[in-house]
Amino acid sequence: MVSRDELERWDREHVWHPFTPMQAYAQERPLIIAEARGCTLIDLDGNEYLDGTSSLWCNVHGHRVQELDSALREQMDRVAHTTLLGQANVPSILLARRLIEVAPSGLTRVFYSDDGATAVEVALKMAFQYWRQCPTPRPTKTRYLSLKAAYHGDTLGAVAVGDLARFHHLFAPLLFPVIHASSPYCYRCPLGLRRETCGMACADELGELIRRHADELAAVVIEPVVQAAAGMIAAPEGYLRRLREVTRDCGVLLIADEVAVGFSRTGRLWACDHEEVAPDFL
After folding, report:
1. What tens digit of pLDDT does each residue of 141-176 get?
2. In 14-70, at which residue ranges do the beta strands (DSSP E only) sit?
3. Neighbour order of strands in the sheet with 40-43
4. What's the rounded Cα separation, in Å, for the pair 36 and 242?
5. What is the DSSP letter of 152?
6. Rounded to two decimals, what is the model's pTM?
7. Which run of H or of E encompasses 256?
8. 202 is in which domain, residue-wise?
9. Is residue 244 in some structural domain?
10. Which helix (H) or strand (E) segment is 50 a member of?
11. What letter would DSSP give residue 51?
Protein backbone atom coordinates (compact mmCIF):
# COMPACT_ATOMS: atom_id res chain seq x y z
CA MET A 1 0.00 0.00 0.00
CA VAL A 2 1.28 3.48 -0.86
CA SER A 3 2.19 5.51 2.22
CA ARG A 4 0.90 8.98 3.10
CA ASP A 5 4.41 10.40 2.69
CA GLU A 6 4.73 8.93 -0.80
CA LEU A 7 1.38 10.33 -1.87
CA GLU A 8 2.35 13.80 -0.66
CA ARG A 9 5.76 13.63 -2.33
CA TRP A 10 4.36 12.37 -5.64
CA ASP A 11 1.69 15.06 -5.53
CA ARG A 12 4.33 17.78 -5.12
CA GLU A 13 6.60 16.29 -7.78
CA HIS A 14 4.13 15.25 -10.46
CA VAL A 15 0.73 16.96 -10.19
CA TRP A 16 0.21 20.46 -11.60
CA HIS A 17 -2.87 21.87 -9.85
CA PRO A 18 -4.97 24.36 -11.86
CA PHE A 19 -5.42 27.92 -10.53
CA THR A 20 -2.93 27.11 -7.78
CA PRO A 21 0.36 28.96 -7.04
CA MET A 22 2.51 25.86 -7.16
CA GLN A 23 5.55 27.25 -5.33
CA ALA A 24 3.41 28.15 -2.33
CA TYR A 25 1.45 24.89 -2.61
CA ALA A 26 4.67 22.86 -2.44
CA GLN A 27 5.50 24.42 0.94
CA GLU A 28 2.28 23.23 2.56
CA ARG A 29 0.93 19.85 3.50
CA PRO A 30 -1.57 18.98 0.75
CA LEU A 31 -5.22 18.31 1.42
CA ILE A 32 -5.75 14.87 -0.13
CA ILE A 33 -9.34 13.71 -0.53
CA ALA A 34 -9.84 9.99 -0.02
CA GLU A 35 -13.61 9.61 -0.31
CA ALA A 36 -16.88 11.51 -0.31
CA ARG A 37 -20.58 11.17 0.39
CA GLY A 38 -23.42 13.55 -0.29
CA CYS A 39 -22.07 17.10 0.04
CA THR A 40 -19.11 16.00 2.15
CA LEU A 41 -15.47 15.43 1.18
CA ILE A 42 -13.32 13.27 3.48
CA ASP A 43 -9.51 13.47 3.61
CA LEU A 44 -6.94 10.82 4.46
CA ASP A 45 -7.26 11.63 8.17
CA GLY A 46 -11.04 11.34 8.20
CA ASN A 47 -11.63 15.09 8.41
CA GLU A 48 -14.83 16.20 6.69
CA TYR A 49 -15.31 19.26 4.46
CA LEU A 50 -18.35 20.77 2.78
CA ASP A 51 -17.95 20.52 -1.00
CA GLY A 52 -19.03 24.13 -1.41
CA THR A 53 -18.11 24.37 -5.09
CA SER A 54 -19.77 21.07 -6.09
CA SER A 55 -16.28 19.93 -7.11
CA LEU A 56 -16.05 22.98 -9.38
CA TRP A 57 -19.68 22.92 -10.59
CA CYS A 58 -19.45 19.32 -11.82
CA ASN A 59 -21.26 17.46 -9.06
CA VAL A 60 -24.91 18.41 -9.32
CA HIS A 61 -26.48 15.67 -7.20
CA GLY A 62 -23.79 14.98 -4.60
CA HIS A 63 -21.29 12.17 -4.17
CA ARG A 64 -22.07 8.45 -4.12
CA VAL A 65 -25.68 8.76 -5.18
CA GLN A 66 -26.86 5.16 -5.34
CA GLU A 67 -28.95 5.55 -8.50
CA LEU A 68 -26.10 7.19 -10.40
CA ASP A 69 -23.41 4.81 -9.16
CA SER A 70 -25.55 1.78 -10.01
CA ALA A 71 -26.21 3.09 -13.51
CA LEU A 72 -22.47 3.61 -14.05
CA ARG A 73 -21.63 0.09 -12.88
CA GLU A 74 -24.36 -1.40 -15.07
CA GLN A 75 -23.07 0.45 -18.12
CA MET A 76 -19.44 -0.51 -17.38
CA ASP A 77 -20.53 -4.15 -17.46
CA ARG A 78 -21.63 -3.54 -21.07
CA VAL A 79 -19.07 -1.15 -22.56
CA ALA A 80 -17.07 1.79 -21.16
CA HIS A 81 -16.59 3.85 -24.31
CA THR A 82 -17.26 3.83 -28.02
CA THR A 83 -16.73 6.70 -30.42
CA LEU A 84 -19.59 8.67 -31.94
CA LEU A 85 -17.62 9.23 -35.14
CA GLY A 86 -19.91 7.71 -37.75
CA GLN A 87 -21.68 5.42 -35.29
CA ALA A 88 -24.05 5.59 -32.33
CA ASN A 89 -24.48 3.93 -28.96
CA VAL A 90 -27.53 3.35 -26.79
CA PRO A 91 -26.76 5.68 -23.83
CA SER A 92 -25.93 8.67 -26.04
CA ILE A 93 -29.24 8.29 -27.89
CA LEU A 94 -31.33 7.93 -24.74
CA LEU A 95 -29.63 10.85 -22.99
CA ALA A 96 -29.94 13.12 -26.03
CA ARG A 97 -33.65 12.36 -26.26
CA ARG A 98 -34.18 13.11 -22.56
CA LEU A 99 -32.21 16.36 -22.75
CA ILE A 100 -34.25 17.56 -25.72
CA GLU A 101 -37.46 16.82 -23.82
CA VAL A 102 -36.45 19.25 -21.05
CA ALA A 103 -34.43 21.78 -23.08
CA PRO A 104 -35.72 25.25 -24.00
CA SER A 105 -38.02 25.30 -27.01
CA GLY A 106 -36.33 24.97 -30.38
CA LEU A 107 -33.21 23.11 -29.25
CA THR A 108 -33.33 19.74 -31.00
CA ARG A 109 -29.72 18.52 -31.26
CA VAL A 110 -27.16 17.41 -28.67
CA PHE A 111 -23.40 17.60 -29.23
CA TYR A 112 -21.45 15.80 -26.51
CA SER A 113 -18.43 17.43 -24.93
CA ASP A 114 -16.35 16.52 -21.90
CA ASP A 115 -16.24 19.78 -19.92
CA GLY A 116 -17.57 23.31 -19.80
CA ALA A 117 -14.72 25.05 -21.60
CA THR A 118 -14.79 22.71 -24.57
CA ALA A 119 -18.59 22.99 -24.69
CA VAL A 120 -18.16 26.76 -25.07
CA GLU A 121 -15.43 26.17 -27.63
CA VAL A 122 -17.73 23.95 -29.67
CA ALA A 123 -20.53 26.54 -29.52
CA LEU A 124 -18.16 29.25 -30.77
CA LYS A 125 -17.11 27.05 -33.68
CA MET A 126 -20.68 26.11 -34.51
CA ALA A 127 -21.76 29.75 -34.54
CA PHE A 128 -18.89 30.63 -36.87
CA GLN A 129 -19.62 27.63 -39.09
CA TYR A 130 -23.34 28.45 -39.23
CA TRP A 131 -22.71 31.79 -40.92
CA ARG A 132 -20.48 30.06 -43.47
CA GLN A 133 -22.92 27.28 -44.34
CA CYS A 134 -26.41 28.71 -43.76
CA PRO A 135 -28.74 29.14 -46.78
CA THR A 136 -27.62 32.77 -47.13
CA PRO A 137 -23.97 32.77 -46.02
CA ARG A 138 -22.66 35.79 -44.09
CA PRO A 139 -18.87 35.34 -44.10
CA THR A 140 -18.28 38.71 -42.40
CA LYS A 141 -19.95 37.47 -39.20
CA THR A 142 -16.85 36.24 -37.40
CA ARG A 143 -16.77 38.17 -34.12
CA TYR A 144 -18.20 37.61 -30.65
CA LEU A 145 -19.60 39.81 -27.91
CA SER A 146 -19.49 38.94 -24.22
CA LEU A 147 -19.75 40.70 -20.87
CA LYS A 148 -16.96 42.31 -18.90
CA ALA A 149 -15.70 40.13 -16.03
CA ALA A 150 -17.06 37.06 -17.87
CA TYR A 151 -15.55 33.63 -17.35
CA HIS A 152 -16.29 30.88 -19.87
CA GLY A 153 -13.39 28.44 -19.41
CA ASP A 154 -9.70 28.01 -20.04
CA THR A 155 -9.34 26.78 -23.61
CA LEU A 156 -8.19 29.55 -25.95
CA GLY A 157 -11.56 30.41 -27.49
CA ALA A 158 -13.25 30.36 -24.09
CA VAL A 159 -10.49 32.56 -22.66
CA ALA A 160 -10.91 35.01 -25.54
CA VAL A 161 -14.61 35.55 -24.81
CA GLY A 162 -13.86 35.80 -21.10
CA ASP A 163 -12.62 38.90 -19.33
CA LEU A 164 -10.72 37.93 -16.18
CA ALA A 165 -7.26 39.32 -16.82
CA ARG A 166 -5.89 38.16 -13.47
CA PHE A 167 -6.28 34.59 -14.71
CA HIS A 168 -5.43 34.96 -18.38
CA HIS A 169 -3.31 38.08 -19.07
CA LEU A 170 -0.28 35.95 -19.96
CA PHE A 171 -2.11 34.50 -22.97
CA ALA A 172 -3.36 37.77 -24.46
CA PRO A 173 -1.15 37.49 -27.59
CA LEU A 174 -2.87 34.20 -28.48
CA LEU A 175 -6.46 35.46 -28.27
CA PHE A 176 -8.83 36.82 -30.91
CA PRO A 177 -10.41 40.25 -30.25
CA VAL A 178 -13.85 40.30 -28.63
CA ILE A 179 -16.39 43.09 -28.05
CA HIS A 180 -17.22 43.51 -24.35
CA ALA A 181 -20.34 45.07 -22.83
CA SER A 182 -20.70 46.25 -19.23
CA SER A 183 -21.81 43.68 -16.69
CA PRO A 184 -25.37 44.14 -15.38
CA TYR A 185 -23.94 44.66 -11.88
CA CYS A 186 -26.59 46.62 -10.00
CA TYR A 187 -24.75 46.46 -6.65
CA ARG A 188 -21.68 48.20 -8.11
CA CYS A 189 -23.05 49.64 -11.33
CA PRO A 190 -20.25 50.18 -13.87
CA LEU A 191 -22.32 53.01 -15.35
CA GLY A 192 -22.64 54.77 -11.99
CA LEU A 193 -26.44 54.50 -11.92
CA ARG A 194 -29.08 53.24 -9.47
CA ARG A 195 -31.39 50.34 -10.31
CA GLU A 196 -34.49 52.21 -9.18
CA THR A 197 -34.04 54.91 -11.82
CA CYS A 198 -31.65 53.57 -14.47
CA GLY A 199 -34.23 52.05 -16.82
CA MET A 200 -31.80 49.13 -17.22
CA ALA A 201 -29.24 51.28 -19.04
CA CYS A 202 -26.83 48.33 -19.18
CA ALA A 203 -29.30 46.50 -21.45
CA ASP A 204 -29.53 49.62 -23.61
CA GLU A 205 -25.74 49.72 -23.92
CA LEU A 206 -25.65 46.03 -24.77
CA GLY A 207 -28.36 46.44 -27.40
CA GLU A 208 -26.57 49.39 -28.98
CA LEU A 209 -23.33 47.41 -29.26
CA ILE A 210 -25.15 44.50 -30.90
CA ARG A 211 -26.93 46.76 -33.39
CA ARG A 212 -23.71 48.60 -34.23
CA HIS A 213 -21.77 45.40 -34.87
CA ALA A 214 -24.57 43.14 -36.16
CA ASP A 215 -22.97 42.70 -39.59
CA GLU A 216 -19.83 41.23 -38.03
CA LEU A 217 -21.19 39.47 -34.95
CA ALA A 218 -21.52 35.70 -35.14
CA ALA A 219 -22.86 35.38 -31.60
CA VAL A 220 -23.28 36.86 -28.14
CA VAL A 221 -21.97 34.67 -25.31
CA ILE A 222 -23.47 35.06 -21.85
CA GLU A 223 -23.91 33.31 -18.50
CA PRO A 224 -27.69 33.70 -18.09
CA VAL A 225 -29.00 35.33 -14.90
CA VAL A 226 -25.74 35.02 -12.87
CA GLN A 227 -22.09 35.66 -13.76
CA ALA A 228 -20.63 33.11 -11.36
CA ALA A 229 -16.84 33.44 -11.39
CA ALA A 230 -17.15 37.22 -11.68
CA GLY A 231 -18.50 37.32 -8.13
CA MET A 232 -22.06 35.98 -8.43
CA ILE A 233 -23.27 39.04 -10.33
CA ALA A 234 -27.04 38.71 -10.68
CA ALA A 235 -28.58 40.38 -13.73
CA PRO A 236 -31.75 42.43 -13.19
CA GLU A 237 -35.04 40.83 -14.17
CA GLY A 238 -35.75 41.37 -17.85
CA TYR A 239 -32.11 41.76 -18.91
CA LEU A 240 -31.85 38.33 -20.52
CA ARG A 241 -35.19 38.72 -22.28
CA ARG A 242 -34.12 42.03 -23.77
CA LEU A 243 -30.85 40.50 -24.93
CA ARG A 244 -32.71 37.68 -26.67
CA GLU A 245 -35.02 40.15 -28.40
CA VAL A 246 -32.20 42.30 -29.79
CA THR A 247 -30.11 39.33 -30.94
CA ARG A 248 -33.12 37.91 -32.76
CA ASP A 249 -33.94 41.29 -34.34
CA CYS A 250 -30.33 41.79 -35.46
CA GLY A 251 -29.70 38.27 -36.73
CA VAL A 252 -27.07 37.42 -34.11
CA LEU A 253 -26.87 33.99 -32.47
CA LEU A 254 -27.09 33.64 -28.68
CA ILE A 255 -24.87 31.22 -26.76
CA ALA A 256 -26.05 30.58 -23.18
CA ASP A 257 -23.21 29.24 -21.04
CA GLU A 258 -25.01 27.39 -18.24
CA VAL A 259 -22.03 25.39 -17.00
CA ALA A 260 -22.26 27.09 -13.60
CA VAL A 261 -25.96 28.02 -13.49
CA GLY A 262 -27.72 25.14 -15.23
CA PHE A 263 -29.40 22.01 -13.86
CA SER A 264 -31.53 23.84 -11.27
CA ARG A 265 -28.77 25.79 -9.52
CA THR A 266 -30.81 29.00 -9.88
CA GLY A 267 -34.12 27.38 -8.96
CA ARG A 268 -35.22 26.47 -12.50
CA LEU A 269 -33.83 23.60 -14.56
CA TRP A 270 -32.17 26.11 -16.89
CA ALA A 271 -31.32 29.68 -15.91
CA CYS A 272 -32.83 30.75 -19.25
CA ASP A 273 -36.18 29.43 -18.04
CA HIS A 274 -36.51 32.31 -15.57
CA GLU A 275 -37.26 34.64 -18.47
CA GLU A 276 -38.63 32.05 -20.91
CA VAL A 277 -35.66 32.56 -23.22
CA ALA A 278 -34.58 29.95 -25.77
CA PRO A 279 -30.95 30.48 -26.85
CA ASP A 280 -29.48 29.15 -30.08
CA PHE A 281 -26.84 27.19 -28.16
CA LEU A 282 -27.09 26.01 -24.56
Report:
1. 999 999 999 999 999 999 999 998 888 899 999 999
2. 33-37, 40-43, 48-50
3. 33-37, 40-43, 48-50
4. 42
5. -
6. 0.94
7. strand 253-256
8. 113-275
9. yes
10. strand 48-50
11. -
